[in-house]
Write a structure and sequence with these properties.
The protein has a single domain (2-120), classed as Sandwich (Jelly Rolls), CATH 2.60.120. It has strands spanning 2-6, 12-18, 23-28, 34-36, 39-41, 65-69, 77-78, 88-89, 94-100, 110-120. It contains no helices and ten strands. By secondary structure, it is mostly beta strands. Strands 1, 3, 4, 5, 8 and 10 form a six-stranded antiparallel β-sheet that branches. Strands 2-9-6-7 form a four-stranded antiparallel β-sheet, with no helix packed on it. The chain binds calcium ion. Calcium ion (CA) binds next to loops.
């Protein structure tokens, strides 16, 4: 299935319920870009000369594609372009949610969406 992941939304529901242990490929289709104020990027995001410590996933780039399963905000999963050819193994069951990594207070200046293809293996 293909889903749009909007940069402005803190959580993009995919409507896809995944089960622990299932394997999926997650690909950025590169049909469009995310925009942070003026910076365009894809699922790998971009680096800034600013501290990342306030980002939801502090070890990752700004706008790195991330996932959350259901309501569990304590296990954010870095996705980026890591799983375009090698599948991710789903760690827990629930709805797959996707988002652009950002400071929770600065989603208002985010624009655009990327299209992501999710393929069960
Ligand atoms: Ca922002």
């Amino acid at each position: 299935m293909d889903v749009k992941v909007y940069a402005r939304k803190k959580l993009n529901r995919t409507g896809l319920f995944v089960n622990s242990g299932e394997k999926y490929l997650i690909k950025d289709l590169n049909t469009s870009k995310w925009i942070d104020i003026l910076i365009k990027c894809d699922a790998n995001g971009f680096k800034l000369n600013l501290s990342n410590h306030k980002l939801r996933m502090p070890a990752q780039n700004y706008f790195y594609l991330g996932a959350q399963i259901g309501e569990n905000q304590h296990n954010l999963i870095p996705i980026g372009k890591l799983y375009e050819t090698e599948p991710i193994t789903i760690p827990e069951s629930g709805e797959l949610m996707l988002f652009a990594n950002d400071n929770p207070h600065f989603y208002w200046n985010n624009f655009g969406f990327i299209e992501v293809r999710i393929i069960k293996i």
